[in-house]
Structures are given as C-alpha cells and as structure tokens.
Specification:
Length: 147
C-alpha cells in the first residue's frame, strides 16, 4: 500500500515540467543565425562559380561548330545562324546565365565573348573569351581564375 507521503512525492514529480528555457532557445537561434551568416555568402560564391560551366560549355560548343564551318567553307563566320542557332547576333546559354557574341577579324580569325546575365551578372568574372587559336581569357584580369 502506498502511504500518504509517497503519493505526494509522485504528484510533485509528475507536476515538474520538462522543456527548454527561453535562454537555451535564444542561444540555439543565435548559433544557427551565425552559421547561416557564414555559410550563405560561401554558398552564393559557389553557385556563381558553378554557373560559369554554362558559359564554358556553350563557348566550346560554338568553337566546335565554328571549326567545322571553317573546314567546310575555308572561312569563319560571324553569323550564329550559319552554325545552326536561331539568332544571328548572339546566343544565350542553356540556363540563361550568359550571352555569347562574335567578333571576327577577316575571314580567318574570330573571338567569342561570354557575358554574364540575369542572376549571374554579379559574377566577379565579367567576361570569358576564346579565340580561333584556343586562347582563353577573362576580365577583369585581377579576378581569380575564371576558366
């Protein structure tokens, strides 16, 4: 049989509430905020760098088509429609992060320039270029490696 004292002890234990204090919750929120504040800029930088592959792949695709055009016609073209693209002046990358334009120098030299657009416009590498010799450049030259 339970005594009166044991019943009171059980009631007291059952009424003791468990949970977190406001201070503990505030500390957890502060830690999460600090981690998010440190991680978010790094994540955005990673995204900008990974989106450059969109430009690199389009540039290399156009270079390949341009070289095939040269093999067939003994001259380079500055018209994207001759290479199978719908617009003659510029081509937008598959994911709409870059626009590629031509610059030709006579019939035997060209330079392709990829310029970031939309959410990629904040990239530190403002342009990626490649020419008929395969020379890859980027601006500004003070930026880290962009290719």
């Amino acid at each position: 049989m339970m005594t009166h004292y044991k019943m009171i002890g059980m009631a007291q234990r059952q009424s003791h509430q468990r949970g977190f204090t406001l201070m503990e919750i505030m500390i957890v929120v502060a830690i999460i905020g600090l981690l998010a504040g440190l991680a978010f800029p790094s994540y955005m930088d990673y995204l900008r760098k990974s989106r450059r592959s969109d430009a690199r792949s389009l540039l290399m695709q156009i270079v390949s088509k341009e070289e095939q055009y040269f093999m067939d016609n003994r001259t380079y073209t500055n018209d994207f429609q001759n290479l199978g693209y719908p617009n003659s002046a510029s081509v937008t990358s598959e994911n709409n992060f870059y626009t590629v334009t031509f610059a030709t120098f006579g019939n035997y030299a060209y330079k392709l320039t990829a310029t970031p657009i939309n959410q990629q416009a904040s990239d530190t590498c403002t342009t990626l270029t490649i020419d008929n010799n395969g020379t890859k450049e980027f601006t500004p030259t003070t930026a880290k490696q962009c290719w």
